[in-house]
Design brief:
By secondary structure, the chain is α+β, with helices and mostly antiparallel strands. It has helices at 2-11, 57-63, 72-81, 116-133, 193-197, and strands at residues 31-33, 36-39, 44-47, 53-54, 84-91, 98-105, 137-148, 151-162, 165-176, 179-188, 200-202. It has a seven-stranded antiparallel beta sheet.
């Protein structure tokens, strides 16, 4: 299961994006309180299902290459400069189900990527190749749309097998200013991604 979780962390930062011309929105990480994660920047919240746990602040800092003793101001500045920001990770250690959210700065990928839809389309081939290189078999990818907290988002549906375990994943993207939020939901054994998606809620009223 640890390898599966590690793969999810790789999946959610697998893509690059083209620069956009929208007005900047100051990037900020979400916050965890009790069994809820909320991100004003993304406009989404996530309520932990029973049996799940969030990564601790120390674990998230480690993913972002920051030490636990780094001063908050310095950490904030590092986050603003980073190309990839790991924002949240939640897991069920018994089932291997997990959710990961990161933020990526738009980069000069080229004219082919101009929207969330083209980002998903261009990412599908790279994702399949990466999974197969990591040892996954029976890999299929499908461009689709999913509803998260009432909002329809472009996404990739993935199915594969890893170490004999069936894996089902949805990777959705949401553009916020010059960042893309990448939301990856993974379940194992059976496809319960819709159930996990239902745990998201909107912060925009």
């Amino acid at each position: 299961m640890k390898k599966i979780v590690a793969l999810v962390l790789a999946f959610v930062c697998m893509f690059s994006f083209s620069a956009c011309k929208e007005k900047d929105k100051t990037v900020a990480m979400g916050k965890v309180s009790g069994n809820k994660y909320e991100s004003e920047f993304i406009g989404l919240g996530f309520k932990l299902p029973s049996g799940w746990t969030f990564y601790s602040e120390e674990q998230i800092r480690e993913l972002n290459n920051a030490t636990a003793d780094m001063m908050d101001d310095k950490y904030t500045e590092q986050i603003k400069k980073a190309d990839v920001i790991y924002d949240m990770m939640a897991v069920n250690s018994q089932t291997g189900y997990n959710v990961g959210i990161n933020l990526e700065k738009a980069s000069a990928l080229g004219a082919a990527v101009t929207s969330e839809e083209t980002y998903v389309k261009n990412g599908m081939t790279n994702l399949k190749d990466a999974l197969e290189s990591a040892g996954a078999t029976n890999v299929t990818t499908k461009q689709t749309k999913v509803t998260i907290a009432g909002e329809s988002l472009h996404a990739i549906e993935v199915t594969c097998k890893m170490q004999g375990v069936s894996i089902y994943e949805v990777i959705a993207c949401k553009k916020i200013g010059k960042y893309y939020a990448c939301i990856a939901i993974t379940t194992t054994g059976s496809n319960e991604t819709d159930s996990v998606l239902s745990q998201f809620y909107s912060l925009n009223k």
